[in-house]
Amino acid sequence: MRHLCLIVNNYTLVRLYILLFLKITFLPILGYSQVDHPEPQLKVGVYQNPPKIFINEVGEPDGIFIEILELIAQKEDISITYQSGEWEELIEALSGGTIDLLPDVAYSQERDSLFQLNSVPVMSSWLEAYALKDTNVQSIFDLENKRLGVLKGSVQEDFLQQSFKNNLKFKFDILTFEDYPESVKALENKQIDLLIASRFFLFSEHINGNIISTGIIFRPSELHFAFSRSTDPALVSKFDRHLSKLKNNTGSKYYKILRYWFDPPGKSFVPKFILWSFVVLLLALLIITIYFILLRYQIKIKTKALWKKNRQLTLAKEKAEESERLKTIFLQNMSHEIRTPMNGIIGFLELLKEPDLDSDERKKYIEIVIKSGQRLLTTINNIIEISKIDSDQISVKLTPINAPETMDFFYQFFKPKAREKDIELIMNHNLPTDKAIFMADKFIFDNILTNLLNNAIKFTDNGYVEFGNYFENDKLIFYVKDSGVGVPEERQQAIFERFVQANLNITRPHEGSGLGLSIVKAYVKALNGKIWLESELNKGSTFYFSIPYIKPVPNEEEEKPKNNSRVLNKKLCIVVAEDDNISYLFINQILKRPEIQVIRAKTGQECVDILQKKSGIDLVLMDIKMPVMNGIEATSAIREFNKTVPIIIQTAYTSSRDKDEAMEAGGTDYITKPIDKNRLLQLIRKYT
After folding, report:
1. What is the pLDDT of residues 52-98, one digit of tens each?
2. CA–CA separation, 658 vs 664, rounded Å?
3. What would the DSSP string read from start to end of 368-398?
4. pLDDT for 422-475, tens place per residue?
5. CA–CA separation, 196 vs 158, rounded Å?
């Protein structure tokens, strides 16, 4: 008995060892094979053939075949991606294996040899002849000498070209089209007499009352899913199994899909009243049932519409939040750009009151006040310019521009600023001699170059700034290149938008309101040009802008002889029309000389009265904005009785339109505020 127990125990141990060996050897292999079983994926072609298959208004695949396909794919855990295109393009893609499946393919021997057509047809179809409402076509024999339109590469074309044409004794022409919209347009324009299409065309959006079915039908056919030859036949069999199951159950989703597309929500059913109350009751129940079915479909459509609307609102909300964020940053920057120079102006003016300042410190403080004032003026000018752009007040006045002279002026103007930062300023003028002078708005053109050069120097700490031009494809192209900080690729388009800078951080190291490039973009557009950017972070940027070449027109107006060498060597009587006390005190201080007598007028009317009553007035400094009568009206009134006295318009307005109005009213010249002392004295010498 003891020996028997030992044998049994040994036998049990042997079984355990064998089971352990099998587990260690084969289970990892089995486990691996279960894990490494990827989810099936199908790339499906989609073309425009509503209601069977099409891309809907929100850019998504839709239609009968798409819904049936997705229903089967959901049951089999098949991942689907879509590729849209024309019919012939997708047929080639299916042949080449770049897509796996193309829905809505009619059976033919050629297609059955090229593709794997599933065995169970998805739907049945036939061909119908469609015509305009007033076309008299009643039988197949009325097709004689008619022009028939079909889709290019379709079964309809094959049928008409081969079977149909060979079996009829009369002639007709066949015209092919790339898609249904093109063929429908040809039918409406009477380029074809009839359109041959499937029966599903009757349910498409193209049937609008003008186009009707003639009742002529031919060639019944079955519509299948066409798979590429490389597709696993087992997967095709799964589609057949599901289709067979769906089609054999009248209550399945298959029939709900067909009812949805062939009997869409919106149809109303008006019952006929009959004598028997029982039949009336049945009809009432039928109406209620149809109502609830239609209501469900309408809710589905409304839900889709609400989803789309919510999506639009979400995008609008995100856009508004981004706009609000940028405006907040802009206001922070603007506050900084106004308060910083004001701090320099007020602070150093206070320091200038100190009695123990030496001459070097006083000079240094005055230079800081001037630079701060210029920076503040630049910010204010940018705000004014962007407001003009918003109110569409940019007016273009074409005048001849000499490119070499202009380029040299900017080179000399910005050279000291570049030297201050120890960077090299390079100028390259490459325009042909016959294109060196062109027509453009000089004010706008100068502002574009000024902004771009200012930016280049501001954002370059070492290296160089280069600006130049060349002629290409009937365009004048100007560029400004630097070796500065560069612009990140993701912000290269955004920096041309308002309130936006390449660096949005409040701790950015460079001053600026974020308006300069948006102004430049608007100015370039006003000159019918384009602006673009090439940049690499930490290596530099190149801004290009192109404008059309306009041949210069000779200026018929001869310039008045200038005598800039004259000095104030005689007694002068000057009327200063200025209502603002501080502005008047500044002008009076400039003109405070023994040889100049200043008479002040606080309104435009007072200035006119002085000119009427007093003789010997040598010059008038006329402010535009004044009470009672403004400067433009006062100038016009003076010119009615005094055509010769020089009137220099001085104002805080800066647009070329203001200057034109002042000149048209009779002004002799124009000077903007803040008034430059040397410029004012130069004008006085010129006209006295």
Report:
1. 899 998 889 999 999 999 999 999 999 999 999 998 899 899 999 89
2. 10
3. HHHHHHHHHHHHHHHHHHHHHHHTT------
4. 999 999 999 999 999 999 988 789 888 988 998 899 889 899 999 999 999 899
5. 12
Residues 6+ apart with CB under 8 A from 255: none
pTM value is 0.39
Select from 216, 234, 262 the last residue of a domain. Answer: 262
> Identity (one letter) of the amino acid at 323?
S
Decide: 154 and 200 in contact? Cβ < 8 Å: no
- What CATH code is carried by the domain that includes residue 479? 3.30.565.10
Three-state DSSP at 61 gives strand
**Is the N-terminal amide bond of 552 cis, ω within 30° of 0?**
no
Are 536 and 667 in the same domain?
no
CA atoms 160, 166, 170, 174: torsion sign: positive
Instruction: Identify which of 123, 124, 117, 118 has the alpha carbon closest to the alpha carbon of residue 239.
Output: 118
Tokens of 4: 């028997």
Peptide bond into 674 cis (omega under 30): yes
Burial class (CB in 10 A: 0-12, 13-18, 19+), 314: exposed
Pick the last residue of a domain from 262, 289, 321: 262
Domain extent at residue 601: 572-687
Here the tokens at position 177 are: 């089209």
Q: What is the DSSP letter of 498?
A: T
